[in-house]
Amino acid sequence: MFPPFLTSRRQFLRSGLALGAFVLPASFRPAVATPVKPGRARGVIVLLLEGGMSHLESWDPKPEAPREIRGEFRAIATSVTGLRVCEHLPLLARQAHLYNVIRSVHCDARNDHSPGMHLALTGYENVGAGVALERVNLRHPSQGSLLAHLLGVTAPGGMPRFVAVPRRSQLGGQVTYAGPAFLGPAHEAFETGSLPSSAVQSAPPPPALLVPQDVGVRRLQDRLALKTTFDRLNRTLDREPGPGRLDAHYQRAWQMLSGQRLLRALDLGREPAAVRERYGDGAVGQALVLARRLVEAGATYVLVNPYSGNGWDTHSQNFAGHKALLPPMDRAVAALLSDLEQRGLLDEVLLLVISEMGRTPVVNAQAGRDHWTSAYSVMLAGGGLTRGRVLGSTTAGGQYPGSRPVTVPEIVATVYRQLGIDPETVISDQEGRPFPILPPAKPIAELIA
């Protein structure tokens, strides 16, 4: 269990930086052109399989193809007639009736991680994305940041709308495409921080949420009131008005610190040990337990990226790499689906399992597969969508879409639609210019229940 609610004045005031999504204002107020409507889903969990999971070793095996394409793994039957998946996904094979697989995703982004991740996290392609180029969102806010802007940066009870598990950056911290761009730091993700390495360990709470026990809620409240008084005095004396603009964001931080809902959600020690064990030891299992707890507590968009660096980037020894990576993912995602179904939440929580790309159909000389954006697979479940649907196909060797090509903006449009956001919504950027939250794209009609 976490220690009881605690802070120091210095730490609380400094939490304006540590809790960037809640205490720093945007420099403007973009106008929303399209109203938000009630959605089928109340939240979304996005599992980012960073590095590029092979579609051929997961959702789209090619057992009839030549060995240099089909690889080393067998294809197994699932609970959906005609759908076969990799042998290292046995739990998800038995649950195929609960989710949808899109086998014909493709994009025009160059075969590199950064453009693909920018696309997956924002819905916009960006050829300038890269470790040596644009390392952060400069023009296009991420989906989580846009939802925080459209719905409010905090939900009732002080829960953040946008949470990153464990952090918002990618490529081992080299790039960050889950950022707010022109929406400003107020729309950053709240970062949960370090994940436990096993199902019996608790993760430490983020430092910004912990404060000394000898301070207490009452003293925090007094200090916030004192700060407000000084801010009013500064404005009266016509001094620098900057600090006064932080008032609403300090109030949001106060909501989070005093409400304790976020602290309770982050405390994995409150979760039954048997449940955590079903998700499995290791980062991906415990990250998804935490993601479910956060959505239950009121978070709207939870980005889960438990992989350190390019976990799925198997340029060499692709089969050894996927043999190690697939079973923990299989166990964790299957446990999450079962958990949501048993709690009556699967129709309320949308799960998106996505990589920034697939892998080359032909195995290279190092028994690896290289980057491939021309065709890959994505899994979508819950959130009021259909179940057990296989949408699209690839050509016989898995090189290109064969039927019903699907773009990433269409997938993002589907997520927005299920959350009650019109994908054609237009906001204003910092110059007052109209900015569509997505390029032209329609939700995937075949998946709309």
Keywords:
alpha/beta; globular; nine-stranded mixed beta sheet
Describe this protein's structure:
The strands form five sheets. Strands 1, 4, 5, 6, 7, 8, 11, 12 and 15 form a nine-stranded mixed beta sheet that branches. Helix content is 31%, strand content 14%. It is an alpha/beta fold. The relative contact order is 0.22. The radius of gyration is 22 Å and the shape is globular. Helix 7 runs antiparallel to helix 8, helix 10 packs across helix 11 and helix 11 packs parallel to helix 12. The protein is built from 13 helices and 17 strands.
Q: What's the pLDDT, averaged over the residues?
A: 87
- Total strands: 17
Structural class: alpha/beta
Q: Low-confidence spans: pLDDT under 50, at least 5 residues?
A: 4-33, 240-248
* Terminal residue distance: 40 Å
Q: Name the shape in a single word.
A: globular
**Major β-sheet, in short?**
9 strands, mixed
Oligomer: single chain
Helix content: 25-40%
Give me the Rg, rounded.
Answer: 22 Å
In percent, how much strand structure appears in the residues?
Answer: 5-15%
**What is the tally of helical segments?**
13
Q: What's the SSE pattern?
A: HHEHEEHEHHEEHHHHHEHEEEEEEEEHEE
